[in-house]
Amino acid sequence: MCATATITNPPYAITHHGAVNGVTGSCHQLALGDGQSVLVDCGLFQGAETSSEGAGADRLNITFPVDQVRALVVTHVHIDHVGRIPYLLAAGFRGPILCSQASAVLLPLVLEDALKIGFTRNQTLIDRFLAQMRQQIIALPYKQWHTAIAGDPGLRVKLSPAGHILGSAYVEFELKQGKGKQRIVFSGDLGAPYTPLLPAPKSPYAADVVVLESTYGDRTHESRKDRRKRLQALCEHAFGNKGTVLIPAFSIGRTQELLYELEEIIHKNRQRPAAPGVNWDDLDIIVDSPLAADFTAGYAQLREHWDNEARRKLAAGRHPLAFEQLTTIDDHATHLQTVDYLARTARPAIVIAASGMCSGGRIVNYLKAMLGDPRHDVLFVGYQAAGTPGRDIQKYGPKGGYVILDGQRHDILAGIHTLGGYSAHADQKDLLNFIGRMRGKPKQIRLVHGDDSAKQALATALRQRHPLTDVLVP
Asked: Which of 2, 91, 173, 376 meets the CB 3.0–4.6 Å disulfide criterion with 414?
């Protein structure tokens, strides 16, 4: 469903082309009174939302005219925010793609991989698309105003750190309106405070309208200290069972944060065993994803964007993304050998592999080989969309259920765990603080990018705290 709501302050309107009935497919259009418009994100639908959004329409197609779209602003490079960019360019969009400096480096990596998986293996076509896209990318430094539409000073844009993944940003637009100005903020995906490697997001000074994500608008995460303790305890439990911990994780963001936390656990516990006969120094941590390995290298190269804590570790000679126990797997043959080896042996290991929702990628082979063995554990550290195998494992696994993988039934006997605290998304408290810390409170808040229950819970909380603000759920 494409939802449109009328803003009480013409001459602009906001149309949502995704992330309305769920959390994927983010794409929002800010249309000005003269017919020109800008897009904020152009993401892919995932899971059940591939059919629920759009009433059965092909969710890869761009279903709105692009002839008056003058610019695309990218909040961050997760596929549910950028996955339809190839189709946007195919529909004729040739305007600038505005993003942060780190996102400008990472975006081609994301879309090259997405094209290979979902569109074509023809490298010539892929290279042609990437060359075109690179011509359109304009990297913007954080916290500086820029003209959003070339030749039109009436609309300015500013990116500020969102703390979600490296390069993530929330977007502020400043629209001249007679002698006054309107401020419109698109949150993108906001991160939780104390996310590894990333500085926490700081609220804008003021806004008239805020389009706010609500992924975890109905819950509160545990603290970073508590979740690290739980991660360590889960690892020790699995190693005591002579099993493997399988972590389905997005190649960018979550994988790097987990590596950072695991390095800290190993560093602090070198003098004590992880389990009887197992030392932390002997532990194998396996990143089985070429894309994740590329992103991890990219994170390392972009260390000037890390937070102060991570920089202090580097200065002390520690390498939180490239430590001794870490192994990366590139080729498919080695991947299959590793799956077989870990399924047969009692070698303690942690495997981080994509996809984060178990809907494809190398994690599926691990799950098929190990879900039926109670020695092993599966740890979810990110949101699982309805209709994905990850959601089914998370929901039915603790009840002794089963999941369908590659068309076959697999019983779930492995331990199933969720550490919500490792979500890269802000929780309800953080989202309320994002609004509450604005000096000038918004007249209107529009909630997107969340399940119905999350949006309704957040809407209720916002209305209680800000009774003069109009809170809409498109």
From this structure: 376
Q: Could you report the per-residue pLDDT of 329-371, keeping only the tens digit for each? A: 989 999 999 999 999 987 889 999 988 899 888 999 999 999 9
Same-domain status, 329 and 400: yes
Classify residue 359 as left (phi > 0), alpha (psi -120 to 50) or beta. alpha
Report the C-alpha dihedral over residues 417, 389, 218, 81, rounded to 10 degrees. Answer: 120
Q: Given pLDDT bands bounded at 50, 70 and 90, which one contains residue 89?
A: very high
Domain that holds residue 359: 224-422
Q: What is the pTM of this model?
A: 0.84
| DSSP string over 463-474 | HHH-TTSEEE--
Sequence-separated (6 or more) residues with CB below 8 Å from residue 11? 32, 33, 34, 177
Position 73 pLDDT exceeds 90? yes
Into how many domains does the chain fold? 2
Please tell me what DSSP assigns to residue 44. Answer: P
Q: Are 61 and 198 in the same domain?
A: yes
Q: Are residues 312 and 414 in the same domain?
A: yes
CATH of the domain at 371: 3.40.50.10890
Asked if residue 231 and residue 143 are part of one domain, the reply reads no
